[in-house]
Amino acid sequence: MEQIIRTQRPLTGVIRQLRPSDLPRFAEHLLRLDDQSRRDRFNGLTHDGFLQAYAERSFHEGATVIGYVEGDKVLAAAELHERAEASEPTAEIAFSVEREIQHRGIGGRLFQRLVAQARGLGYLRLQVTTHSNNSAMKALARRFNAKLSFQQGETNGIIELNGETDLDADRRAPTDLGRRATGKAIAA
After folding, report:
1. d(Cα 77, Cα 176) in Å, to the nearest integer?
2. Which CA distances in Å does 6 have to 3, 9, 156?
3. Name one Pfam family in it (predicted).
């Protein structure tokens, strides 16, 4: 019997906040999403014109977009959209990962970066909405302590950010950095 071994190409990109000049690359990323990935991201099928307008609206309305970038291509993105109508500082989050790099940890790394960015912007709550069959997104949201509920054919999640942050824990942790830092200082 012949065994087929599939190798995955190494991930060589970086995760970074997308700049306004990255708008065309973000739009190209959305347009490259296959039908299932589009359905997972937008809770239904979308046409190319909608995706182009969505990308432009995201950048022009002040959304924070963090991308996984290889070369000059955005291959995955995490978005933070303010929900100004909410009583507490709240943002809705969304993720898209192109098929060939799915299930390789990119979504989790983008999620971590997005949560840190949301805390830095002072948000207290994040919302995520996906269709009921998007098991990858539901699992990812659960990893970040989302409280999930099912309403009107969608899964809705709330992530509370008002708990202790990693920085709070770091401030209380005993370190000997202070002792090491009292050595000689060298001016450049």
Report:
1. 38
2. 10, 10, 35
3. Acetyltransf_1
Question: Tokens in use for 147?
Answer: 């409280």
Q: Convert the pLDDT of each residue in 77-134 to its tens digit.
A: 999 999 999 889 999 989 999 999 988 999 899 999 999 999 999 999 998 877 667 6
Helix, coil or strand: residue 91: strand
**According to the 3-state scheme, what is the secondary structure of 156-170?**
EEEEECCCCCHHHHH
**Per-residue pLDDT tens over the stretch 2-40:** 554 456 788 899 999 999 999 999 999 999 999 989 988
Strand pairing report for 90-97 and 125-131: parallel
Partners of 95 in the beta sheet?
A: 78
